[in-house]
Amino acid sequence: MSPASPEVAAAPSPAAVPIATASANTNIALIKYWGKADEELAIPATSSLSLTLGGTRTTTTVSFDGGDGAADSVTINGTCPGETELARVSRFLDLVRARSGVTAPATVTSRASVPLAAGLASSAAGFAALAAAASRAAGMDLDDRALSRLARRGSGSATRSVFGGLVTWHAGHDDASSYAEPVACTMDLAMVVVVLSQKYKPISSTRAMRATMATSPLFPAWVEASGRDLQAALDAVGAGDLKRLGEVVEANALGMHATMIAARPGIVYWLPQTLAALHTIHTMRDEGAPVWATIDAGPNVKVLTEGARAEEVAAALRDRLPGTTVSARYPGGGVRIEEGP
Ligand code: 2P0
Predict the structure, then answer these.
(1) Are residues 298 and 244 located together in one domain of the fold?
(2) Which of 152, 117, 132, 170 is nearest to 24 (CA)?
C-alpha cells in the first residue's frame, strides 16, 4: 500500500485537527448599547463606549473534531449549558463554518477566570473568545476589525471585548460598518464593582432590549440622547476630564434604565439595594469622591472612578454598603490567541 492510498490519507493525525484557544476580557459600557436596529445582523440602534477590564478573561478552546458525533459539544465552566445557550453557540459556529468551509461539528470548552458571583457575568468575554478561537481553528485569518464584526454576531457587547482599554462600537448600518475600535485615552480610569445580589435572575438582555424597543414610548428619545451622550463622553476623554465623563456615564445608564422601566410591562432590573447604592454614591460624590454609577442588565452597580483612588473608593463602599461584595477593577487588554494551528 502506498502512503497516498485513501486508507492512509484518511487516518486522522492529531496535528490535522483544527484547534485553537483564545481568551478575552469582559467590558463594562460607559455609554450603553440597548436595542438592535437589525436583529439578524446584530446591528445596534446606537453606538456605544466601554472599558475592557483586566483580570476578567474567559478562555475558550474550539476544536472542529466532530463534536459528540452529530452535533457541537459545549462545556462552560465544567458543565453543559442549557439548550438556549447551546443553540446560541451552535448558531455562531454555523456562521464560522459557512464562512470557512469547515463542516465538522466542534468541541468547545470555555472557562471564565472570574466567578459568576463577581457581578461581571457577561456574554462579552465569552463570545469574543469564541469568535477568536473558532475563526482561528477554522483557518480564517481575521484582523481585529473583522474579528469584532464576527464577535458581534454572537453577542453585541462581545464586539467591544476584542479590544483592550477604552473602546467604541460604531453602530454602522450593515455588517461591514458595525465594528469596534480602540479610543486613545490617557486617563487613569477604574471600575469598582458592587455585587448586591447573587440570587437574582434577570431577564436576558436580548429579550429585554427587544421588549424595550417594541413597547417603551421613551425609546426614540433614548436613541437620540445616546448620540449626544457618546459625543460628550468622547469629548471628556479627549480633555481628560473625569468629572464630565462621569456625569454623562451616570446619566446615560439612568436613561437606559428609565427607558426600559417605561416598557409595557416595565423591565425593572433594580433591587432596593441598587437604589441604596446609588444614593450612597451620590453622597460620596457630595463629599468630594470621584464616583459615578453605571448599571447593566441586572441589579449590581459599577462605579467609575480614578484608578489611583479605586482601592480607597472600594473600601468606603464596603464600609457603607454592608452585605455587598466590592472589588476594584482596572483596564485590561483585548483578545489574545493562546494557542493556534
Ligand atoms: C452594554 N448591555 O452596552 C449593555 C448595557 C447590558 C446593558 O450589551 O442581545 O449580552 O447578546 O447583543 O451583548 C448586554 O447585552 O446582548 C449589553 P445581545 P448583550 O454593555
Answers:
(1) yes
(2) 132
